[in-house]
User: Which sequence fits this backbone?
């Protein structure tokens, strides 16, 4: 079964703080994605990657950096956190095959910026 | 701009009835994939069903089926014989090819389904 693990699951930080959200997948998938979920906005794509060392810009990238260090690990970095980045963050992975990039999601990381 | 639109914010239905959730999309790709995902009350997001744009037959998966109307850029999710456990948020999604190898998956805002006993 596909496995995507996010950490931390919950995080509270102060405005201007530095936060790293981690995601690890053990599916040997090529693609990994970071989304944020906010009421009234659904899931919005922040960054994604199709392999180690690759980074693609999503639809809401401002204030976020990301890095794909290995096939398994994808990190989301908030270097100067702001209250507008309070959100529920989801990581997902997908294979590059005939599934059309069916996504397998992690459990989510809730971030609160005070 | 390429986008996915779900206009129904919330739907309530009686148990054991059939419900249809709407989704329209915009894309410049000639070949694309459309998906529906379910987010349960616990927050878990799971894949339900997929439609390949080049296939004329509507996809089915258990008590889920799709109403794919390509000329209208529409992909509706149909749930038959609804159960209380179907109460959840349903997201429509589309995969587009932004660049070679760069497969971007974007989502609609979701429809909250309430199945009433």
Assistant:
């Amino acid at each position: 079964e596909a496995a995507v693990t996010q950490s931390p699951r919950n995080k509270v930080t102060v405005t201007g703080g530095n936060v790293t959200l981690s995601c690890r997948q053990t599916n040997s998938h090529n693609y990994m994605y970071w989304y944020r979920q906010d009421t009234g906005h659904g899931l919005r794509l922040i960054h994604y990657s199709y392999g180690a060392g690759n980074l693609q810009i999503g639809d809401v990238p401002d204030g976020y950096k990301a890095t794909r260090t290995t096939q398994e690990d994808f990190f989301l970095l908030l270097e100067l956190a702001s209250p507008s980045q309070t959100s529920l963050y989801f990581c997902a992975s997908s294979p590059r095959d005939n599934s059309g990039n069916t996504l397998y999601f992690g459990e989510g990381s809730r971030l609160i910026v005070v | 701009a390429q986008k996915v639109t779900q206009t129904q914010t919330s739907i309530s239905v009686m148990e054991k009835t059939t419900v249809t959730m709407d989704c329209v999309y915009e894309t410049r790709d000639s070949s694309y994939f459309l998906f529906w995902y379910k987010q349960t009350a616990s927050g878990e997001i799971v894949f339900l069903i997929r439609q390949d744009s080049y296939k004329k037959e509507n996809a089915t998966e258990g008590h889920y089926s799709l109403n794919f109307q390509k000329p209208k850029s529409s992909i509706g999710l149909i749930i038959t014989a609804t159960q209380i456990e179907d109460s959840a948020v349903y997201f429509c999604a589309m995969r587009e090819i932004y660049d070679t190898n760069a497969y971007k998956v974007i989502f609609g805002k979701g429809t909250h389904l309430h199945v009433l006993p």
